[in-house]
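Every protein is a chain of amino acids, and every chain bends into a shape of its own. The fold becomes a row of whole numbers, each drawn from a learned catalogue of backbone shapes. The protein below has been through that process, and both of its lines are reproduced in full.
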Amino acid sequence: MSVSESPTFILANGSFPTHVCPRTLLSTATRIVCCDGAADRLVAQLQRDPDWIVGDGDSLSPAHKTRFADRLVLLAEQETNDLAKAFRFCVSRGWRNLIILGLTGAREDHTLANLALLLDFADQATVTAYTDHGQFIPTCGGTYPAYPGQQISLFATDPTIRVSSQGLKYPLVEYPLSRWWTAALNEAVTTSFHLLLSHGKILIFQTFIAEGNTTWT
């Protein structure tokens, strides 16, 4: 696989990954685009230099603004957050296979905004987001690998979406995702599950199988 085809990692400035899965992925990444001050954490935690830093520059240390001036993309507009800025930068470069880390764990309003952005990003790229507990995937429906007992939650920002499922402990039949909590905390009963949506996109959250085991991804 060439560098252009391999995943590009976007490291947001939330909590730095501690779980072995996202941390290992990050340590072996070919290309890392940091959201502003996330570059400081990358250098401190993994002794790895960012390939690019994108944002408004308000949280990046002065020392790293100087050190990484050749790879710093400052965007002053405040209509979007640094994650959205980094995503647009990646797409402009033709990098459309994206893994996002560090998008949760800090301020709750930032977390909610970042999760909602994943659904918008999915219109232009293939996106997976890892946290210290599992992964978020935007989807229009389909079949996904799982393991019996794996915790599965579904979220939608469009309350008119209805979803049907196969392979989940609590079956859904044209079930309206009218609230964020209505399809949370379900469970896989087989090695895969299938979702059929009435329209639009939703977020799937799947927990890790165990510390360091990502065979289901």
